[in-house]
Fold each of these.
Amino acid sequence: MRQAMHSFAWWPMVAVLAVAVTTDLKWRRIPNWLTGPFLAAGFAVCGWLHGWRGLGQSAEGMALGLLAYGILFWLGGMGAGDVKLCAAIGAWTGPGQLLIAMILTALVGGLMAMSWALSSGFARELLEDTGSLIVTGARRYRERAADAGPGSGPEPESGEKASRPRRKMPYAPAIAIGTLLSFLAR
């Protein structure tokens, strides 16, 4: 299944990732009109080529993308469009290749973030905010585990950190590079 799906998925993947990178760089959004049909097409193609087994692989890939990137979204470290894009990629590639793509994406994204922060002069803030994301995520988990109720979270920060401009790096380029590299790694 892997080889046939691998070659069949390459060109649709390249096309969708090119559009996702363009929209994310230009508008900081990955549109639903792109990710929704791509997700559905992944299920359709995998089901058509490999029957129920293909549908199962698509479901597992989608679930892995939703779970892993959904946690990052919940922590505030990723946008919803990134989550939906990764779920759609998982529907095309299955969980095995998506895991490789996510590891490569994390490496590429980390390098891109550090380069961006160093060249823009806010590397210290990036490191502080990453630590804060981890602490905030742990706090949110504890609050929800203690039945704090939906929508509860940490109090908004005050002072210098709250007044800093929020810098968001478009993550679709990292997702695209990591995903396309995962095709070469297989």
Note: Residues 32-75 form the longest helix (44 residues).
Amino acid sequence: MFKALIDHGSSVALISNEYVAKLGLRPKRLHEPYIAKLTMEKNGQKVKFSEYIKLWLHDPSLYWSSKTVCAVIAPGLCSPMILSLPFLAHNNIVVDASAHTVINKNSDFDLLHPLPPLHPGRQNRN
């Protein structure tokens, strides 16, 4: 179990190399390196990432699971994982900043407040 950062401005899901090792995942090589500009470190220098993993996420109560996604491995990442706009779109997730919710539209499951869904017949229709 780990926490993830939700960044709907990010174009790709990222995972730290520490969590890849901790979870015992096997990295795969990207066909082409993913190039990112680091704004917080190295004064905006571009960095190439060359590996990714496939995984799916679920909440601790197992009421909700994501679709399988690819996450680029980013050494020194500030969070165990960053969930990007493509991840949110692929999983039909809506972020409502004013309501402090991150809800899967298929199941009404709120990732920020993981309680059993109100409509049990609608859960896990990803």
Note: Strands lie at 5-6, 14-15, 28-37, 46-55, 69-73, 81-83, 93-96, 101-104, 109-110.
Amino acid sequence: MSHRNEQLLRDAYALFGKGDVEGFLATCTDDVAFTVPGDNVMTGEYTKAGFASDFIGRFMAHTQGNFREDIVDLVANDEHGALLLEHSVGHEGKTSEYRTNHVVTFRDGKIASWREWPGDLAAFDAAWT
């Protein structure tokens, strides 16, 4: 039997995958913090409102809908969750693929923080440049 926060993450990522940003953000606390490392168009720290506007705007402008995210593995407990993901990013006629990790913390049954941890930061930056 999986932990309830594993299902929360699966549901949240399914919502994001369908383009339901409002539904995805409903799985997050009001003060959630999103952190994207590197030196690329997505790099930054985002609030909930900033994710809905700035992050999604940058994301859509860069990928123009050419993005795929597959969950390879996922674990979660009461406090933390970790996802191993495969990403495929289309930009200007080329496709970049890389593996990355998302590490989250939970509070009151919701995602309270979210941080990207790419396995290869250079490949991550190249995909988002």
Note: Residues 81 and 104 are 5 Å apart (CA to CA).
Amino acid sequence: MRPRAGSLLGMSRTIRGDSTVAYELMRIVVRDGRVFFVAQPSGQSAAEFVAGEVEEGSVDFTNPEHDFPQRITYRRVGEDSLIARIEGVLSGRERGVDFRYARVSCS
């Protein structure tokens, strides 16, 4: 959703066949002069990540205390696409996953 009243709201869902297998509610909010990404995947408790490095077209959010991921990065690619990357330590090993997104029309 477009920014309004100091927040951005978003959601995603993963579909396999006729089933929703995962979903996530997301917010980006400003609180006490800091920017937070708040993720709530598939009904779990919300996890907060604070914005660190912000550059033209990219932002990093971190929470070293979170189980996985500990870092979330968004990077704009062109005018209508972005790459989200989650990374951190999982089961004692460094892991990372990229998600590619492109703007689409909603009917």
Note: Residues 7-102 form one domain.
